[in-house]
């Protein structure tokens, strides 16, 4: 692994997270992706941790229907400094996989962790049965209506704790708060709803929401849609927590909202998803002229044309520019900056 402990988060050179309200409760610092020869329905995963165990916090499986599924997650814990065979209880799935992703949090480590092997155990999949899994996935999508499919495409998982509090207040306590504050008369209280608030107050509420909540709010009614798609709410975009959901459709939607985008984090995106380098080039061309900060760490789709368009379009980059651990050898390229 690349680091350990919390010291690297405390040094003066550490930059704050972009769009901090999107940070999930269980934070991942690093990951590895393992691919096996055989397709199996996973029943058990055993991780042979040789030195400084306890950093594993999430295990994902990439299924044959091109979907990432989280099999297990847990916050980082401090463990005795002895080798162990770590085999957490996995979420049961009925779809074959041969690709596993393991995420790490190094906060409780006193030194680098080390893994010798990862054993994937499961029911071997007969190739003759593969069409059945694809047909079931197609039928499952067909049973959902257009609104359900739209919401599925923006069903981001991470939700910050403060967002939970805000949503709970708006759903359960907002009406009584309005009445008690004397903002409306009792006879009018039954007609007063969230939509009756001034747009400025709605905008302020939306500024505390993460991308999941903003997208869902924009699907509720016309007035909340107008507020939730305001470009001033999208001056900072952090897509790293949603790496498994980012695709061309999402970038196209964000492209219509990010007219004043200044900070962007695309780290970890594009891994076994439909996102392509062409999608990134299109997005940067449309929204990158005002960027001052950009993070592209471990971005699997990054290549020479992507770097070239960043050099041409992002003329305002005066802050942070991270591009570490990129996968593509095509990045070796001369760029005229």
From TrEMBL:
Gene3D superfamilies: 1.20.1280.50, Ribonuclease Inhibitor (3.80.10.10). Pfam families: F-box-like. Residues 191-237 form the F-box domain. This is F-box/LRR-repeat protein 4. It comes from Pseudolycoriella hygida. The lineage of its organism: Eukaryota, Metazoa, Ecdysozoa, Arthropoda, Hexapoda. The gene is FBXL4.
